[in-house]
Amino acid sequence: MLEHYGGIYGSLSKKTEGFLVALAGGALLVSALLELINPALENNSVTSLLRLFL
Q1: Are 49 and 40 in contact (CB under 8 A)?
Q2: Within 13 Å and on the Cβ side, how many CA atoms surround 13?
Q3: How far apart are CA 15 and CA 3, in angstroms?
Q4: Confidence of residue 47 (pLDDT cuts 50, 70, 90)
Q5: Three-state SS letters, 3-14
Q6: pLDDT above 90 (res 10)
Q7: pLDDT on residue 52
Q8: Is 46 part of a structural domain of the chain?
Q9: Domain boundaries, position 40
Q10: 11-44 pLDDT per residue, tens
Q11: How far apart are CA 14 and CA 45, in angstroms?
């Protein structure tokens, strides 16, 4: 098992580390969704896309 010595600025608590991982994961999901939605909005109207999902 690898030992954890901390980073260049010290070690983070498990709670803070978990929050940062969740925040980064959420940012990645939002970025991926925006990459899919923006081209769809260029070719279609917002109302037609909303009808598709609702």
Answers
A1: yes
A2: 3
A3: 18
A4: confident
A5: CCCCECCECCCH
A6: no
A7: 73
A8: yes
A9: 28-54
A10: 888 999 999 999 999 999 999 988 988 887 777 7
A11: 44
Query: What are the respective helix, strand and coil percentages of the chain, to the nearest 5?
Result: 70, 5, 25
Q: Which residue has the tokens 């109207």?
A: 45
Count of domains for the chain: 1
Radius of gyration of the chain (CA): 19
Taking the CA of residue 39 as centre, how many other CA atoms within 13 Å lie in the half-sphere pointing to its CB? Answer: 4
**Which structure tokens are listed for 40?**
């769809």
Structure tokens belonging to residue 8? 């260049």
How many other CB atoms are there within 10 angstroms of residue 11's CB atom?
11
